[in-house]
Amino acid sequence: MALERTKAWTALLMVGVSKFTCAFSIMQRYIFSAIKGVFTVFSKPYWTAAEILISYKPGVKFNVFITGQADAYMLIYSLWDKSLIHLQEQFMAVFLNNKLQVIGYRTLYTGNMTCCCIDIRLLASLALHCMASSVIVAHNHPSGSLEPSANDIRLNKAIRKALNSISVTFNDHFIITVGGWLSMREKGLL
């Protein structure tokens, strides 16, 4: 801050007293550039904040319609990283329009051998961003077990609550392994 003051006073002395207004403006620029937050210059408020950019660029839609659990599983399994299915838990979301046509998909998380931390805010944000009407999620169990854990069931409740709050349908949650799949909707666990 001391260096900025020195520059400002030097500018004031260089231009002379007759150009006081211009030098004063230069001095203010140096002084106020070091202040963060809200400040006022000549009674005009200036705010510093991050700019938020929202854009939606729909690409080529999948020509895939989900008419049942088998269709959903086949799509999800075809998109899955097979090299990690026995090694690490992964969590994927498939976003659908109101005709149950696939808009897009995203592998949201890759965890360790026994768990995968999920941020539901990101899931809800992506659903809003692509204007999805419903969402199907899936995760794998590297152990090969198709039995849902207590955490899986708690996660379903949290996802349902978050998606309901933004008027998006939580369509299904799949557990997949190399040997098969389980639809939590079909088992009444949603």
First and last CA, distance: 59 Å
CATH H-level homologous superfamily name of the largest domain: Cytidine Deaminase, domain 2
In the predicted model, the low-confidence regions spanning at least 5 consecutive residues are none
Helix content: 25-40%
Task: Sum up the structure in keywords.
5 helices; 5-stranded mixed sheet; globular; alpha+beta; two-stranded antiparallel ribbon; 2 domains; 7 strands; 34% helix; 190 residues; 22% strand; Cytidine Deaminase, domain 2
Structure description:
This protein is an alpha+beta fold and 190 residues long. The protein folds into two domains: 2-46, no CATH class; 69-183, 3-Layer(aba) Sandwich (Cytidine Deaminase, domain 2). Helix content is 34%, strand content 22%. The protein has five helices and seven strands. It has helices spanning 2-15, 20-32, 69-79, 120-129, 150-165; strands spanning 39-41, 44-46, 90-96, 102-110, 134-140, 169-177, 180-183. A five-stranded mixed β-sheet has the order 4-3-5-6-7, with helices on both faces. A two-stranded antiparallel sheet has the order 1-2. Helix 1 (2-15) packs antiparallel against helix 2.
